[in-house]
Amino acid sequence: MNKPLYQLVMLDLQTKIREQFESNAKLPSERTLMDQYEVSRNTIRLALDDLEQRGLIYRLHGKGTFVSPRLVNQTDLGSMYSFTQEMRDAGRNPITFNLALELIRPEQPVREQLNLTDGAEAYCLTRLRMADNEPLIFEETYLPIEHFPDLTMQMISGTPLYVVMKESFHETVVMAFEDIEAGAVTTREAQALEIAEHDPCLTIYRRSINDHNVPIEFTKSVARGDHFVYRTKQSNRRVLTGENK
Q: How far apart are CA 80 and CA 61, in angstroms?
């Protein structure tokens, strides 16, 4: 079955938005698009309406139509989040920079998350997550030395952390608990993320558990507020299961 003309226009614009336009870039005018696609104004407006409903564009009265910021959409909060996979699924090129690996004595809030005693040591791994050369997430990960002795920067260079955990230390993350808060970036976080101090952010605290029900990782991730959205999906189970009949 042939697609309606406006859908063909919408799909072509969608590809161009993802591959050619930067966030907040202005799209050509309706008249320009009409000439480009050789279609009516109504067809262009239907295509733009569809793109707007998909969250790919936004309109400003009297100014035009613009490309929406690329948001990382985590829809399934019950699944194990993978930055690299999310970026690849979105058609972006992810890269992680390991900035520092230090052996420290964590402060009390971190010790409580990892069930560590006073004076216990842990590695603090600082990372910057980027996509298409744009910094998106600043992370601090704490790893107890008793579970990851002799961890080195070389081990985690070019290899996913969870792979290193499993292959080098026989530690497997089977469950994680996350708390998500809205906040503002600190001076250090702003410098790393190349945004202004006190800009909005999402802060995700992640506590990971191994197969012996022991916490082995605690991560604080600071994500740029202009690029991330956590969205949940809800349904009326009574309707879906026919309980209302």
A: 40
Paired tokens of 9: 């226009």
pLDDT digits (tens, 9 = 90+) for 16-75: 887 888 777 899 999 999 999 999 999 999 999 998 887 788 888 888 998 876 655 544
Q: Which domains does the chain have, with CATH numbers?
A: 5-67 (1.10.10.10), 72-230 (3.40.1410.10)
> What is the pairing mode between strands 228-230 and 173-184?
unpaired
β partners of residue 232: none
Find the mean pLDDT for residues 143-162.
94
